[in-house]
Amino acid sequence: MQGFSMELVLCLLLFFITRTSALNTITPGQSIKDGETLVSAGGSFELGFFSPGNSKSRYLGIWYKKVSSGTVVWVANREASISDTSGVLSISDRGILAILNSTNSAVWSSNTSRNAKDPVAQLLESGNFVVKDRNDDDTENLLWQSFDYPCDTFLPGMKIGRNFVTGFDRYISSWRSTEDPAPGQYSIRIDPRGLPQFVLKKGPEILFRAGSWNGVYFTGKPVLKANPVYSYEFVLNKNEVYYKYEMQNSSTFSRYLLNPSGLAQRSIWNERKNDWEVFSIAQADQCSIYAFCGAYATCTTNKSPPCTCLEGFVRSSASSTDLNSVDWSDGCTRRTPLTCDDGDSFLKQTRLKIPDTSISWADMSINLKECENLCLKNCSCTAYANLDIREGGHGCLLWFGDLIDISDFTEGGQDIYIRLATSDLNHIQRKGKLKEKQKAGIIIISLIIATGMMIVAFLLYIRKKKLRKAGEQEKEELELPVFDFATIAKATNNFSRNNQLGQGGFGPVYKGTLIEGQEIAVKRLSKNSGQGPEEFKNEVTLIAKLQHRNLVKLFGCCIRRDERMLIYEYMPNKSLDYFIFDPTRSKYLDWHSRMHIVDGIARGLLYLHHDSRLRIIHRDLKASNILLDNSMNPKISDFGLARKFGSDQTEANTKRVVGTYGYMSPEYAFDGLFSMKSDVFSFGVLVLEIVAGKRNRGFSHPEHDHNLLGHAWRLWMEERPLELIDNALGNSYIVAEVLRCINVALLCVQRHPQDRPNMSMVLLMLSGETILPQPKQPGFFIERNLPLTYSKSVKHEPFSVYGSNITELEPQTFTQDIIIPGQSIKDGETLRSAGGSFELGFFSPGSSKNRFVGIWYKKISPGTVVWVANRETPISDRSGVLNITSQGILALLNSSNSLVWSSNTSKIAESPVAQLLESGNLVVKERNDDNLENVLWESFDYPCDNLLSGMKLGRNFVTGFERYISSWKSTEDPTPGQYSLRIDPRGYPQLVLKKGSEILFRAGSWNGLYFSGKSGLEQNPVYSYDFVLNNMEVYYKYEHRNSSFVSRYSLNPLGAIQRFMWNERKNDWEIFSTAQADQCAIYAFCGAYATCTTNKSPPCTCLEGFVPRSTNSGDLNSVDWSDGCIRRTPLVCEGKDGFLKHTGLKLPDTSHSWANKSISLQECEKICLRNCSCTAYANLDILKRTGCLIWFNDLTDMTEFTEVGQDLHIRLAASELDRIQSKRQSKEKLKAGIIAISIVIATGLTILVFVLYVWKKKFRKEDEKKEEMELPMIDFATIANATNNFSENNMLGRGGFGPVYKGILVEGQEIAIKRLSKNSGQGLEEFKNELTLIAKLQHRNLVKLFGCCIKGEERMLIYEYMPNKSLDYFIFDKTRSKVLDWHRRIRIVDGIARGLLYLHHDSRLRIIHRDLKTSNILLDNSMNPKISDFGLARKFCADQTEDKTKRVVGTYGYMSPEYAFGGRFSPKSDVFSFGVLVLEIVTGKRNRGFSGPDQDQSLLGHAWRLWMEERPLELIDNALGDSYNAAEVLRCINVALLCVQQHPEDRPNMSLVLLMLCGESTLPHPKQPGFFLERNLPPATDSASSKQELCSLGGSTITALEPR
Questions:
Q1: Candidates 3.40.720.10, 1.10.10.10, 2.60.120.510, 2.90.10.10; correct CATH number of 24-149?
Q2: 925 near 842, Cβ under 8 Å?
Q3: What's CA 131's distance to the chain center, in Å?
Q4: At what angle do helices 708-717 and 676-692 cross, to 10 degrees?
Q5: Sign of the CA dihedral 1578, 1583, 1586, 1587?
Q6: Which is more confidently placed, 1587 or 1494?
Q7: Closest to 149 in 3D by CA, of 157, 159, 141, 139
Q8: What distance, in Å, lies between the first and last C-alpha atoms of the chain?
Q9: Of 586, 885, 896, 1307, which has fewest CB within 10 angstroms of its CB?
Q10: How far, in Å, CA of 292 to CA of 697, rounded?
Q11: Using CA atoms, how far apart are residues 842 and 830, in angstroms rounded to an integer?
Q12: Closest-CA residue to 312 (of 389, 237, 424, 218)
């Protein structure tokens, strides 16, 4: 029996030993069930099933075991959770891991490309879960590993990167929330483009860039010294790129975490604190935001504004600093363009985070000098740098795009050589040398008096040049002339009230007269305007690119500091509403004038919607925005709210609905949807107002409550539409036109956008005679005002900004901002602040089903919760009701009518109301008392996890009441978490972040300007701060200087404090700063009497006069420095101590300190010396340099700043002080020998001034030429490079101008280059003509001119490249003509007609093309036609009908008779050419050279004969087969024959042509065409006209004829 017992014990012992040893592996046939775990051999990690937070879902994960038990680092089934505890993990014989659920279905599985002999799954001590062959421990032979599939945690030994061969990408991605491990929006990965770099992304958008690897570290961080904690490895070869790190000490635990809010943190486990400490955060401040400062600008932390243009560059935007303090994305542009042809050099910039390398090229084998030569040879190269900074630097890195995302480091960083024009470089170098000379001049002033005068003259010259260039740059940036402020002030009589024309949403409008007599209208941006910088920018960028006779002309703008002005052509007749709504003045608008105005507005809108290259939605079309010139021609104005659409975009959505009541379409007002049909609705309202002479909004009628639309509809349905006509018209109108106008207007104001016509159809209906469709009931039919969908929504008022109603509506919601006793807010109902910024109601966070009452942003970022009432008492269903009692108590009740949460008040209320203010503050107050000091209760007294503008943090010393913010427990549970941000009232109060009772971070005490924990900021344009400390209370708050900025502090569930700023352009929050940026932010990280320095390794240094307390090795102290330092020499105290001044510090913890505001610094020193416990003193207020702050204990939590910071006087023994001071003096003596070169510098300066003068003279003429062109100048080398040095293979053809080449710019843009041939019949005159004309034209059916190139005798025009060549390439080729089906041909005809109509009628310049032919009609990718070749075009005046020339130029077969024979040309000459074109498109045959059954007839004659014989369909191109619309073909032939009439007066104009082509009305019968019999022009009968020469220039026929 005893033997059996012994055997049993041995068996059990063996079983447990075996079980224990197998805890880190499973084999086929074994499994891990929910509740069982694997533990790594050393016990560091554990694998098993878990539920995150309050979630009930089960996941298989890996977490820390030895430290921080439960901190999950990896999840298998991230996107496929198990709903119960039935999960099982097993491994198959093939080495496949699988998670099975209760139905034995696979929820998740691994994969492998190799067969396993004896597979096992093992959890390694690194946290890596691997599948391998049992007896193969080589990590290179693993079958599968979890490290290949990271989640939100980046562990030591894990790789992030990409395999270039397989495309496999390893990256980390955030959890969706703290309770949902599914992949969130954020990821950290290697971007493989160009030179690979480490980036943080939100979806596809880069948020943060750590930069590329320079051999030592990622360039996004300043240089680190040898690091005792980590070792890094970065591998880049042709097969793969990856980055990983390892711990130097295996006993140290570290991890990177990407949390659900996108914050990337590196944490280290602190054994002493038994907690994770944040070692660093990627997004420390605004300079961490990707491309925060835009191109060619550097970002500097602790500078305000933070962005600065690189030397040689100037701001791209002319907006003020205030405007761009949040969004600097415009960046900077070159002061002087690059010349490329050996006229460029490089400027060395030091201590930088080098730019984005996604468009770069690298080679490790090239040295820096070769790198420079390579860059100089490539005109697209913008900068170069060393690829590897080790051993003095080697390798070559070239940039080819704009240089973006650059930061300026105060130390460390990297060198980069930036390409500049040599003239700019010389200018910068002179500037640098000048500073050195100024230093020398102070010492030896007697020797350089003459040189000093020269320096003054030089400085004046530089200043003048700088100001002039700044002005020129602004003109280029805005694509508009920039007027100086003095000119505008003088023109408006210093903005006299007598000159004021009116006031709008933008601000006041003044009349002005320039010195040359030009009358102007000046719109001056008001600082209090509801519109403002964004609308200003919008109006400038849009209208500067638009050119139409029915759009107001913008002459330029004026910008000076905060001043912004737009200078327009002056409209003496003011705006349409000035006339139309005034009983007296409306009589000046007879029916003809009104119809003319309607037509002009329609044409202007058609141009915006269809014909402009930019598709523009105006969004604020109304009578006051229609200006009238001398001749009562209408001009659409005010593009501040306009939006640009893409070519294929049909509609857009906005959360900020802006516009004017009465003109907004229903879908825009209610849903924020806007499109071209929104403008059509506004146009319809306008037409009805023009007909009726009454406003839509505010219209009243004794018989009904309808607005003007409803009234018009009622009269239409009752067949009394003529009663709508304005009485001022009397009987002087055309009934048919009035009825047509009303019908079209009602069609335009249909409720549904799809029922409204587009503007092309509107113009056709207004001008034609076709029967119009019957309109349906219009939108906003009954409403005089917009409807209130919620009965309690009684307070919703549009606010008037200087007379312009800007109505901000939230789609589908109209709510009030107050409730009174007897009213309540139920779940599903909301309160909204008066301006629509905040909303209060019930919500459920994340996937939680619990209901809370909260306040969230509404106007922007809807759903971002900033305050919660019942944080700790959720409601489990949707039965919640919030009401207010007659005593002014807010009460939240559940389904059983039980109290869940309530407010409190110590005052008795007479007539209480609860109101949600625009600040986001929910207040209870007396109804008629708006003084916030008297509120009965406010939510701002009970902050949650957000600190908003105007909210206080602090403590009342009398009542003990404390205001502080506390984190949520998780992203789905607003219960107060572990973390809080509060004012610590001990000693001198300071702002601290706590985890429970432990201080994690200390922002420091207030020094009169800022909290001392941050290095000093310059005056901040975004915020103002307020810190109050008196006997009653202490508090801190901040306010926005500009109410349009939206900002908040947030304390997230992981304890990170972040300041967010709303970026309107990105429509997202941007992290502006993070409190815990690095290890120096950890409270007392370096212990007592030691300072912490960021980017230094090790970061801690003892103060002078102190030595380390611990003798432990550096490795031990690399993580835990809490031992700090002690004095080298003890204090004596008996009058034998002194003070050593330290500068640039974060002051020590003030919880054991004493302060007095009235004591000077000298008195402070004496008080400290008399008290033996005093260890240091400092100024209390650095702004006033007054007050005394004294410390009585060890000095802890000090940081050394590289710039600014504060002075601290630290007590030392006198002997120690003497030793330190003698050491400092010896260092200063080393700086003595720098002053002997002043005369050499002065001489050098003189030479440089002379050289600069010569260069200035040399390049001034070239600059003047460029200014004349009004187009970008593209350098010759760029064009040569793009065309492969004008290779024959790149030649597209040859014309009268010269050869035409295809080219591809470095960025991939395809271009066509027309190169002026020296032997060309055309030449400089035609070149200038084409430049001056087409540069001022803007239409989708005209070819786009990108720029020009002038070098020596070379003249080139650079166009957009047309891949489908020209129309003749297709239409006259039997094979290729089949590509052009009838639908495409009719679209080409329509496009050419629209382009010609713009040239003849709608452009401010009236242009006669004079050489319209198939080879001059280019076709883009989509076969859209573009009229090209304006070399022979001529400009007409507004009232000019024809002109005459002795030099007839053009092409046979397309010229009109009066031009060919008489030299007379007019718009009707182009109409003739258009008619020929249409016939050629229909037939597929050339007019000239046509060979038909009747040999004496041209194509025109043949067409005429078939028409007369009623056989016109025989004209149709055989390539079309039967795939055509016969009615459309007949209409085209009819219109074409009308266009080619013998006499110009018989031809229609292009407006009528377009109407006839698109309409359905009966067309007039054509007469016999011109050039009916002629195949060639007949010989002149007059002997004097015998000179008729044809000269063919490379395929383009230029006919020079002497007119008779």
A1: 2.90.10.10
A2: no
A3: 46
A4: 70
A5: negative
A6: 1494
A7: 159
A8: 141
A9: 896
A10: 44
A11: 8
A12: 424
Residues 132, 235 contacting (CB under 8 angstroms):
no
SS (H, E, C) 1287-1340: CHHHEEEECCCCEEEEEECCCCCEEEEEECCCCCCCCHHHHHHHHHHHCCCCCC
User: Per the structure block, which two tokens stand in for 187?
Assistant: 């990821």
SS3 at position 245: strand
Peptide bond into 305 cis (omega under 30): yes
Distant-in-sequence, close-in-space partners of 933: CB < 8 Å, separation ≥ 6: none
DSSP state of 995: E
CA angle 1347, 1348, 1353 (to 5 degrees): 175
1583: which DSSP letter? G
Give 645-653's long-range contacts (Cβ < 8 A, gap of 24+): 645/615, 645/616, 645/617, 645/676, 646/615, 647/615, 649/615, 650/675, 650/676, 651/675, 651/753, 652/617
Averaged confidence pLDDT in the chain: 83
Higher pLDDT, 1577 or 629: 629
Whether 123 and 47 have beta carbons less than 8 Å apart is answered as: yes
Alpha-carbon distance of 414 to 399, in angstroms, equals 15
Query: For residue 820, what are its two tokens?
Result: 């009174």
What percentage of the chain has pLDDT greater than the value 90? 44
Paired tokens of 1001 = 């971070």
What is the CATH T-level fold of the domain 573-814, as seen in this structure? Answer: Transferase(Phosphotransferase); domain 1 (1.10.510)
In the residue annotation, 484 being an active-site residue is answered as no
Which letter, b or e, does each residue of 763-790 get, where b requires 16 or more Cβ atoms within 10 Å of its Cβ? bbbbbbeeebeebeebbbbeebebeeee
Read off the pLDDT of residues 1550-1567 as tens digits, 9 standing for 90 and up. Answer: 888 988 888 777 888 998
CATH superfamily entry for domain 1365-1601: Transferase(Phosphotransferase) domain 1 (1.10.510.10)
User: How many whole angstroms from its chain centre is CA 998?
Assistant: 41
Q: What is the pLDDT of residue 1332?
A: 59
DSSP code for 78: T
pLDDT confidence tier of residue 1583, bands split at 50, 70 and 90: very low
Query: Which residue has 């390409």 as its token pair?
Result: 419
Q: What CA–CA distance (Å, rounded) separates 1332 from 1338? A: 13
Distance between CA 508 and CA 492 in Å, rounded?
Answer: 12
- Say if CB 22 and CB 77 are below 8 A apart: no
Catalytic residue among 408, 620, 679, 1120: 620
Residue 897 region by backbone torsions, left for phi larger than 0, else alpha for psi between -120 and 50, else beta: left
| φ, ψ of residue 931 in degrees (nearest 5) | -75, 115
What local confidence, expressed as pLDDT, does residue 610 receive? Answer: 85
Please report, for the chain, the start and end positions of each structural domain, with discontinuous segments joined by +: 24-149, 573-814, 862-913+921-1075, 1084-1150+1172-1178+1192-1229, 1365-1601
Q: Is the dihedral of CA 724, 729, 735, 738 positive or negative?
A: negative
- Residue 921: phi, psi to the nearest 5? -90, 125
Over 80: is that where the pLDDT of 1400 sits? yes
